[in-house]
Design brief:
With 151 residues, the chain is mostly beta strands. The chain contains one helix and eight strands, in the order E-E-E-E-E-E-E-E-H. The chain has a domain of 104 residues: Jelly Rolls.
């Protein structure tokens, strides 16, 4: 069943230690969304935490030819390149004191907006002054009422 845009895909709230590293999620079906919105907070004394996205075409074997870069600054938008994805958190050197990561499904139309349709504007109406014609009872072609622009 497709995952609607805006739904939570994955979260990690427990601090990651060097002993428990790497923390790897299960495979998630990407049907229904084209991008991931990823937000995270990692607090370390001297260690580093790396969050990466991994892809698969069958939901069991990691694809190594088409890969994702490590998630950079938060919040980040990552394009989905595979039918299945998973998340990997690697803690190096020292234990993290705080690890919070959140991934949300996003559809393509939420990121790229279509500009509003602009209508062609009519020129402003001219103010015409009626002058008397040289011939009595007749009007000059300049005295015709202005045409109405259809908008």
């Amino acid at each position: 069943m497709p995952t609607p845009a805006g739904y939570k895909i994955w979260e990690q709230t427990a601090a990651v230690t060097v002993a428990s590293s790497p923390v790897v999620s299960g495979w998630y079906d990407t049907t229904g969304y084209t991008n991931l919105f990823i937000s995270y907070v990692f607090t370390n004394s001297t260690g580093t935490t790396t969050l990466t996205v991994e892809g698969s075409f069958d939901g069991s074997t990691q694809e190594t030819d088409i890969t994702y870069a490590a998630v950079g600054a938060t919040p980040a938008t990552v394009a989905v390149l595979h039918p299945f994805i998973r998340f990997r958190l690697v803690q190096a050197t020292a234990d993290a004191t705080r690890t919070k990561a959140f991934a949300q499904a996003r559809a393509l139309w939420l990121i790229f907006t279509v500009p509003p349709v602009t209508r062609r504007r009519c020129p402003p109406p001219r103010i015409r002054v009626r002058r008397r014609s040289r011939t009595a009872g007749r009007t000059c072609h300049r005295n015709r009422p202005p045409t109405v622009c259809p908008g």
